[in-house]
What we know:
The complex is a heterodimer. By secondary structure, chain A is mainly β. Chain A is built from no helices and eleven strands.
Amino acid sequence: GQNIDQPTEMTATEGAIVQINCTYQTSGFNGLFWYQQHAGEAPTFLSYNVLDGLEEKGRFSSFLSRSKGYSYLLLKELQMKDSASYLCAASNDYKLSFGAGTTVTVRA
Amino acid sequence: SAVISQKPSRDICQRGTSLTIQCQVDSQVTMMFWYRQQPGQSLTLIATANQGSEATYESGFVIDKFPISRPNLTFSTLTVSNMSPEDSSIYLCSVRGSTYEQYFGPGTRLTVT
């Protein structure tokens, strides 16, 4: 089975940094995805990690530790438009098991 | 990235009826999937749409309720059969192309009354 855990909500100030943690326990694993989802919209691909370490892509970075079953998404220089739900998903043969999502609220 | 379209974008249906949702991709993709997102919840995989063969369903989902077709590498349909209010949800098509990235279509918002 799949068990994906991430915090329900986080609040941060514009310009700040927020780190969203995700732990996973899966029967098979070939990568960890992060998606952003604004209310009423489809998820948008942010990142994919298959090897341990940090992947940086502009203001967003994602980290993976396979031995610990742990990942995080780091959002830097927060902007108001970053207010959204962030979904962690573990891949097993490219079938994704999603966490419940973390709602990030950015305040001025 | 692949451009994915879904039809219809939303619909309101009566219980007991069926709705077929279409997913069209602008390029050939290796894998296509159907997900469901119930109100206030995260996404759940329904099935993998296999080209030229029967779909592979996840636990809790069956072919009689959610028949799926994938006649080629750019198109798939999902039918929600004999609908009940519990089927009210957003249904999303997802694709994986030649790279590891997976993308989602805009979704079909279904309300069953």
